[in-house]
Amino acid sequence: MFDKTRRKIVFTVVFSLLTLMIVTLTTIYLSNRMAINRESREMLKTYAERFSLEEQPSPHEDGTRPDSESDNRPSDFNEPRGPFGERPQQNEPQFRLSTFYSVAYSKSGEVLNINNGNNALQSEESLTQIASKILKKGKNSGKSGNMTYIVEEREEYTLVAMIDGTINNNNQMRLFRQMLIIGSLALILLFVISIFIARRIVRPLEENDKRQKRFVSDAGHELKTPIAVVSANSELLRREIGESEWLDNIDYENERMSDLVKQLLFLSKAENREIPKEILDFSNLVNGEVLPIETLAFEKGKQIQSNIENGLTVEGNPNQLRQLVSILLDNALSHGTGEMITLSLCCEHHFVVLTVSNDTKELSQEQLTHLFDRFYRTDEARTDIGSHYGLGLSIAQAVTEAHGGKIHAEYKDGKVIFTVLLPKKRNNKQ
C-alpha cells in the first residue's frame, strides 16, 4: 500500500514538472518564433518599400546580369535603395545580417529582374520557381519553406520580395534542443529528489500503520486469555446453578468476542506478507469451498451458480486463499437480497479472475469506496446479528494484496460484483 503511495507521489511530482517544462519550452519557442517572424515581416516590408526597379542593375546585351564583384558595387539586397536612391542608415544591423531576395514580374508575367544577393545563396532559377509558387498561392504575404515573403502589385510590375530565415530557424532549433537537454537533465535530477521526498513523506504513515497492526495483533493475543477465563467460569456456574438465561447471554457474547478476536488475528496475519506460499490448483481450491457452502445456501433458500475453469494455478497460501473464497461467498449469503449467487473463475491474460456477484440493495459510490474498510458495514444502524463485524472484506483485501493481486467491488444492474485478480502461475509438475 505504501509502495503504491510513494509511486503516486513520485508520479505526481514528475508529471507536474514534465507538464511545466513542456508548457515553458513551448511558450518560449512560440514567443521567440513569433518575435522573429514579426521582425522579419517588418524588415521585408521596409525592403519592399525601398525597392525600385529603376535602381536595379541592368542586364547586358546578351541577357545576363552583371556580376556584382566585377562591377565593384555593393549588392542591392544587402543595402537596398529607396525610391530616390537613398541607402539605409548604418545603424540598421538587421539589414546587413539578413539575406533578401526579390523577383519582379511584368503584367504579362515576364521576369523583369531577379535579385539573389552578393553570395548567390539561391540561384536565379530556384528563386524564379519559388516566386512562381508564391504567386500561385494568391496571398499577399506568408511563408514558403524558410522564406518569408510579401507580394506587392505596382503600376508597371509585380514584386515578390523574400527574406531567408534559414539561419534564424536553425538558431531556434539549436536553442530548443539545448533547452530540451537541460530540461531533461533537470527532470532526472528532480525525479531522484522526488523519490527521496516521497520516502520522507510516507515514512511516518508507514510507521504508524506498523504500530497499529502490532497493536491489533498484541490486543488479539491478550484478549484470548480473558475470553477463555469467562468461558470456563460460565461453564462452572452452569454446573452449579443449572441453565440460566443470563449465562446463555454471557456465552453468546463471549463467543462473539472470541470470533472477533480470531478475525483480528487472521487479519493481522494476512497483512504480514511473510507467509509460506506454494504453487496450488486454485480451481480445485475454489470447488472445495463452494461445495459445503452450497448446502448452507440451500438451507437459506438460495442457490450458487458456479462456472469454474479447470487447471488454473496460482502461488499462494492455501489456508488464506480458502478464507478469501469463503468470505466472498459468506458475504453474498448474508447480505444478498436475491436467491441466486453467481461465482465464476477464469483466466484473463496473465491473471486468474475470481468473480462473485449477488443481488443487493442499491449501493452508492461512497459505500463502494468504504466496503473494504475495517469495521465498515453498509447497515448504518448496525443491526446485523451473528459473527459479522465488518472485518470480512478487509481480510479479503489483505489476503489478495498479500498474494500480489487486486480486489474491487462495483454495483451494476442491481448486483454487487466482487472481482479478485491473482497472478497466474505455471505448475512445473504438469
Number of distinct helices = 10
Strand order of the largest sheet: 2-1-5-4-3
The string of secondary-structure elements, in order, is: HHHEEHEEEHHEHEEHEEHHEE
Major sheet characteristics: 5 strands, antiparallel
Task: Describe this protein's structure.
The structure is a single chain. The protein is elongated and about 135 Å long. It contains ten helices and twelve strands. The model is unreliable at 58-91 (pLDDT under 50). Among the domains are: 54-164, Beta-Lactamase (2-Layer Sandwich); 276-423, Heat Shock Protein 90. It has a five-stranded antiparallel β-sheet with strand order 2-1-5-4-3. A five-stranded mixed β-sheet has the order 7-9-10-12-11. Strands 6-8 form a two-stranded antiparallel ribbon. Helix 6 packs parallel to helix 10, helix 7 packs parallel to helix 8 and helix 8 (318-335) runs antiparallel to helix 10 (392-402). The protein has helices at residues 2-50, 68-71, 93-97, 124-137, 166-241, 245-271, 282-299, 318-335, 365-370, 392-402; strands spanning 100-106, 111-115, 141-144, 147-153, 157-164, 278-281, 303-308, 313-316, 340-348, 351-359, 406-412, 415-423. The longest helix is centred in the middle third of the chain and has 76 residues, at 166-241. By secondary structure, the chain is α+β, with helices and mostly antiparallel strands.
What is shown here, in short?
The chain has ten helices and twelve strands.
Describe the SSE topology.
Layout: H1 2-50, H2 68-71, H3 93-97, E1 100-106, E2 111-115, H4 124-137, E3 141-144, E4 147-153, E5 157-164, H5 166-241, H6 245-271, E6 278-281, H7 282-299, E7 303-308, E8 313-316, H8 318-335, E9 340-348, E10 351-359, H9 365-370, H10 392-402, E11 406-412, E12 415-423
Parallel strand pairs: 7-9
Antiparallel strand pairs: 1-2, 1-5, 3-4, 4-5, 6-8, 9-10, 10-12, 11-12
